[in-house]
């Protein structure tokens, strides 16, 4: 292993996609409680663009972005007893993903079932754990409820449509194009609204004036007010993304004016910080995959060295489904 080089993507300064630099570094050595992972596929997520642009802060620079991947354990460090070389594993929520090889704490890994490929795991682990968090923990969706899902053709959105329908919810999707609307319907959305013009009025018509118990908003700044207006009294606004920019300057009084609403900004890392919670969430996710409830779509594949191009595609909103990098 010591003679091999490790192709990575590093950021020396934050900015546009061009700050993602291809570099060759030594293959790292796992420390106590860590494993060395040879990655076979790496997930590309909007949160990666937030760190790259400087919206979210790296602890220090240079840094390797990326929060999700899957591969084969090459070596284990001291004090690792439940994982062995050759095992196929995945992770989500641990920075340092844009690399051929990486070290990672063993307690952050989940072992893949035989019928889940590394590509599928890289496409679904972060998004699937997020969907589980949103539908089963942040707001436990019940049969017969109507829910609103933005970016319903995106990586998380497709899973929310599929899982939401399985739970017996009526899913209203929001997409930017008719083509994406067709994709959202294929994933289980009962209705799809193209564009966000007059969104509260359209939701009012679809719900016969009842409005919604929960809205899942991954867009951020551009849709925040409209989302609040789609909620029934005491409804929950779940703001979990910033695709149009962060929501800032919120007057909490507006929650009262809209009907005593609740607002949350959940982070997956909080919900899987405990190892037992991570394993339980992953077990629920893999169960949905094995039952065929979740059918993750890999819409885009890029070589690891093409990470900048992958970010451009993601930020242009021209992608559908999940995007992965292949080392």
Radius of gyration: 20 Å
SSE run: EEEHEEEEHEHEHEHEHEHEHHEHE
Unreliable stretches: none
Rounded mean pLDDT score:
94
Percentage of helical residues? 25-40%
Largest sheet: 7 strands, mixed
- Distance, first to last CA: 16 Å
Beta-strand residue fraction: 25-35%
Q: How many helices?
A: 10
Number of strands: 15
- SSE class: alpha/beta
Shape: globular
Description:
This protein has 10 helices and 15 strands. It has helices spanning 46-53, 118-138, 155-166, 178-186, 199-206, 224-229, 253-257, 268-271, 275-290, 307-315, and strands spanning 5-11, 20-26, 34-44, 68-76, 88-92, 101-105, 110-111, 146-150, 170-175, 191-194, 212-217, 231-239, 262-264, 298-303, 322-326. The strands form 3 sheets. Strands 3, 4, 5, 6, 7, 14 and 15 form a 7-stranded mixed beta sheet that branches. Helix 6 links the parallel strand 11 (212-217) and strand 12. The two termini are 16 Å apart. The relative contact order is 0.15. It holds the Pfam family ADH_N.
Can you describe this structure in just a few lines?
This is Zinc-dependent alcohol dehydrogenase. The chain is an alpha/beta fold and 327 residues long.
Question: Keyphrases for this structure?
Answer:
327 residues; alpha/beta; seven-stranded mixed beta sheet; six-stranded parallel beta sheet; 28% strand
């Amino acid at each position: 292993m010591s003679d091999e080089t490790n192709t990575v993507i590093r950021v020396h300064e934050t900015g546009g996609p061009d700050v993602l630099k291809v570099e060759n570094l030594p293959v790292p050595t796992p420390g106590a409680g860590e494993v060395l992972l040879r990655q076979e596929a790496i997930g590309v997520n909007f949160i990666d663009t937030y760190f790259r642009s400087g919206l979210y802060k790296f602890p220090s620079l240079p840094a390797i972005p990326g929060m999700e991947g899957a591969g084969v354990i090459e070596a284990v460090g001291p004090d690792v007893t439940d994982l062995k070389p050759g095992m196929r594993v995945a992770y989500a929520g641990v920075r340092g993903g844009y690399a051929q090889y990486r070290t990672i704490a063993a307690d952050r890994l989940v072992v893949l079932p035989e019928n889940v490929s590394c590509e599928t795991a890289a496409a679904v682990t972060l998004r699937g754990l997020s969907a589980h968090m949103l539908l089963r923990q942040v707001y436990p969706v019940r049969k017969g409820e109507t829910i609103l899902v933005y970016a319903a053709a995106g990586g998380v959105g497709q899973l929310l449509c599929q899982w939401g329908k399985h739970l017996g919810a009526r899913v209203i999707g929001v997409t930017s194009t008719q083509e994406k609307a067709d994709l959202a319907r294929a994933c289980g959305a009962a209705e799809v609204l193209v564009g966000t013009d007059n969104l509260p009025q359209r939701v009012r018509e679809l719900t016969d004036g009842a409005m919604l118990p929960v809205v899942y908003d991954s867009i951020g700044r551009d849709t925040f007010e409209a989302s609040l207006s789609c909620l029934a009294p005491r409804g929950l606004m779940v703001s979990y993304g910033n695709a149009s920019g962060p929501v800032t300057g919120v007057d909490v009084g507006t929650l009262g004016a809209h009907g005593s609403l609740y607002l949350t900004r959940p982070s997956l890392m909080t919900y899987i910080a405990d190892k037992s919670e991570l394993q339980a969430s992953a077990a629920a996710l893999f169960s949905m995959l094995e039952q065929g409830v979740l059918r993750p779509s890999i819409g885009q594949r890029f070589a690891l060295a093409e990470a900048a191009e992958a970010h451009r595609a993601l930020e242009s909103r021209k992608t559908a489904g999940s995007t992965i990098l292949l080392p």
